[in-house]
Amino acid sequence: MTQARQTIGWIGMGRMGYAMAYRLLKGGCDVGVWNRTRAKAEPLAAYGATVVDSILDLAGRDIVFTMVSTTADLQQVLFGPGGLVTTDRKPRMVIDSSSISEDGSAQVRAELARHGVQYLAAPVSGNAKVVKAGKLAVVTSGPRDAHDIAEPYLAMLGRGVTWLGEGELARVWKIAHNTMFGVIIQSLCEITVLAEKAGIPRHAFLESINNSVLGSMYTRYKTPAMVNLDFAVTFTPKLLMKDLDLGLDTAHKYGVPMPTAAATRECVQNAVGRGHDDIDFSILLVEQARNSGMELKSENKPVTDGLND
Prior knowledge:
The chain is α/β, with parallel strands linked by helices. Helices cover 48% and strands 12% of the residues.
């Protein structure tokens, strides 16, 4: 198959799914999209997407991407009533970019194989803003020939695609990745509160960190939220806690102690327990300040997120 012959389906129009499907449309792909709440998918019609009413309307597509919340959600859209592979007509490949467990992904792979459908695990690094800036990173695992077919489309999503090997290695990568960014955001919140309580303006401290050897794309794109206390959601504390639980479960499976991740998980649990639901996980900064006897205020400073620099 050549790139020009591929037709694409997309299941899941959350913040990431929408942004990624948009990138494929801008790249000239023929994309059909489905979401449980149709209204979330409909704006993509203006960019050439075919918005469908049923998952089965995507079964005739060559490649179908999925981006959902949990293993159970993925199993439902694939194998549940009206699921993608429940009739004679099936896609050639499913590419899943959800954050799910290694074991859950293996179960999905085995079931898809019974239906004669190739499966590529393709988790990503970044949020919707990173996708929009064209800086998403993608890793894959599964059959190398499936990766080679999918690579031109995955490359449209960002700045790089890396094949890690067979099986569920990409899931382990994603679990390790998200565990790391949980630990980093908690550490960044702690040192930022320390600096501010000592008298350093928050924007000045974060700018200096971003320009130091410790700075990264991640610290830069979280800086505006932390300086101006703008917690418009990119990733919620509940989702972060789910990923930290996956990280700790995987660490237990492989016999790897992770005391820093365990401590971070309790900090995130505290934020969840305080009712921080539909808000960005950088609200951890406010919780760290509260625990330090401080009440933060927005600095109202124009700071860059670094994504378009």
